[in-house]
Amino acid sequence: MKNWFGFILIYNLFFSGNLWSQTSMINIPGRHTISLNGEWKVIIDQNDVGISDWTAIWKDKVPKSTADFVEYSFENGPVLKVPGDFNSQLPELNLYESTVWYKKSFDYHKSDKRLFIHFGAVNYMCDVVLNGEKIGHHEGGFTPFQFEITGKVKEGTNAVLVRANSQRLKNGVPALGFDWFNYGGITRDVNLVETPAVFIEDYFIQLQKGSNNQIQGWVKIDGANKAQQVRVQIPEAKIDYKVSANETGFANIQLPAKLALWSPEQPKLYNVIISSGADTISESIGFRNIEVKGTDILVNGKPVFLKGVNFHEEAPQRRARAYSEADAFQMLTWAKELGCNFVRMAHYPHNENEVRLADKMGLMIWEEIPVYQGIAFSDTAMQAKMNWMVKEMVQRDKNRCAVIIWSMSNETSPGKDRDANIAKMADLTRALDPTRLVSSAFNQIKFEGSTATINDTLSKALDVIAVNEYLGWYRPWPSTPGTMTWVSDFNKPLIMSEFGAEALYGNHGLADSASAWREEYQEQVYKDQVAMFKTIPFLKGTCPWILVDFRSPVRMHPVYQNGYNRKGLLNENGKKKKAWFVMKNFYDEMN
Ligand code: GCU
After folding, report:
1. Any atom of ligand 1 within 6 Å of the Cβ of 411
2. Pairing with 165, which of 2, 58, 257, 345 sits 20 to 30 Å away (CA)?
3. Per-residue pLDDT tens for 342-353?
């Protein structure tokens, strides 16, 4: 790894705990866990007073004398399932955007092991209290975090309280306005994780960039004596590699490997076993190369066209935040059926089940953090938040070969601060993971007559340019679609990362009026888009917006939308609109 010492510096800055109070170990499924999923008692704290001493929700007080009383109690109140957003579980929480306090009691028998509590995600602001002691805070609704509770857990019964607040914030990431439903709560798994005193906290094991036969990466040991021997085994590839970690716990991994490369056509995964001292962890990892050459995107050295589709992390029939492997299987199976080899997980890191399943199913992934539209880039505190989200995103999924693109933002307004912030995030991303591509989706294109020019200076910081264009929907066609000319100021691949139109499934008629929300209108937009795609030589990927109609509080037409964005190729019950077949045909023709 070229900039090895620079990388250690960045890694320690973020992982030291000085700057941020918690980091998350990776590969939870591969560790010794005690699940805290299931029923949690809750208190609905609409005015969010429970974090103060006055109300004592966080102290979980009970009356001690006849003069005592409490107005908040977890006993005899509502119960919510974890994982799962709170909006979809109680009718009074349907449109709720404030605080729910959760409580879970668990029995624990202490040993010489270390103990952590790990959250897959809590949207948006989270405070955690264990046995009456505040143990930590996390901001951000779509990435994992943890707290070490080794010295705080009691022998016998313990109680963990979690404050989950989903209020949208001007200085949040995302900020106040976004076009998806703001599902709040403990939306992903909660686990207790037991580790030996010295354990394998983190590792990065992938092919060296540009090589098909050299594994490069590192293993990070945490604990008192970090300078342990580390062993990496890939039995099927006859690899058994030993190396010593240095005093900071880092072991540099560099070894030749003869591997069957992962590709969408052949998503080969290997069982990788990492051991050090008393700790052993394993998981399935794929090995492939992704790079850009001029305006081409290469997978394992071969040019590829990214036949993609966008989707939100939503279980449409449950009208809820998706979280399970079954939810992931439904979405990714629909993507496969459309003929995709690529998915854009919009607009935030989706749950780990989805990413791991994409590894297995051979679907390349665009993963992004929710730096979405109206972000106050001039606020320096925002830079720290955005950098932290980049780190948490890369950290969790850096061993998932399906992830080929890390995206920094979506449709942010052009400007010096925006370009400078995103360029810094791109540099951080490349320092944390030099093997993948960096992009950002934007929508400011210069249209002059029938020419569309890509000149957003953000492109300088990107490996792949990604344009959201809604010609035929938000913007009329400047000329006959197939006669347009696209020009780019940058010699880089272009992905059309969003395009489309709305239609209500089953609503039919002439294709002549957008305001009728007919399938025929949407179908014609897709036919025109495909005609245009065929005229752009540096176009190397397309991602229709969007696979499935999804819930959004800013889509309220009383006849056609009713709280749904209807740009889906499928409706929320998986029914195919006519535009589905245009896109499927476009992808099938490429095979
Ligand atoms: C935007 C945005 C999406 C939104 C879509 C739309 O480009 O990225 O989040 O849902 O357009 O307007 O439907």
Report:
1. yes
2. 345
3. 999 999 999 999
Q: Helix axis angle, 4-15 relative to 416-432, nearest 10°?
A: 110
User: Would you give the DSSP letter of residue 405?
Assistant: E
Residues with Cβ < 8 Å from 529, sequence gap 6 or more?
471, 472, 481, 496, 499, 500
545 lines ligand 1 (CB under 6 A): yes
Nearest to 292 by CA among 83, 435, 128: 435
Give yes or no for a contact between 553 and 563, defined as CB atoms under 8 angstroms apart.
Answer: yes
pTM for the whole thing? 0.96
9 by DSSP, 3-state: which? helix
Q: Please enumerate, as own/partner, the contacts of 443-451 that have beta carbons within 8 Å and a separation of 24 or more.
A: 443/411, 443/467, 443/468, 443/469, 443/498, 444/413, 444/414, 445/469, 447/475, 447/478, 449/478, 449/479, 450/478, 450/479, 450/480, 450/483, 450/484, 450/485, 451/484, 451/485, 451/486, 451/487
Please choose from 347, 545, 547 the residue to mutate so as to test ligand 1's pocket, defined by most ligand atoms within 8 A of CB: 545
Residue 10 has pLDDT above 70, yes or no: no
Ligand 1 atom nearest to CA at 443: 7
Whole-angstrom distance, CA of residue 537 vs CA of residue 163: 51
Residues 6+ apart with CB under 8 A from 197: 112, 113, 114, 223, 224, 278
Between the CA of 76 and the centroid of ligand 1 the distance, in Å, is 42
User: What tens digit of pLDDT does each residue of 206-216 get?
Assistant: 999 999 999 99
Quote the Cα angle for 13-19-25, to 5°: 70
Whether 228 contacts 245, CB under 8 Å = yes
Q: Using an 8 Å Cβ cutoff, are 183 and 23 in contact?
A: no
* In 411-482, beta strands by DSSP E: 437-442, 446-448, 451-454, 464-468
> Which is the closest atom of ligand 1 to the Cα of 567?
13
Rounded to an integer, the average pLDDT of 186-212 is: 97
Task: Name which residue sits closest to atom 4 of ligand 1, judged by CA.
Answer: 179
Q: Is the shortest distance between the CB of 498 and ligand 1 below 6 Å?
A: yes
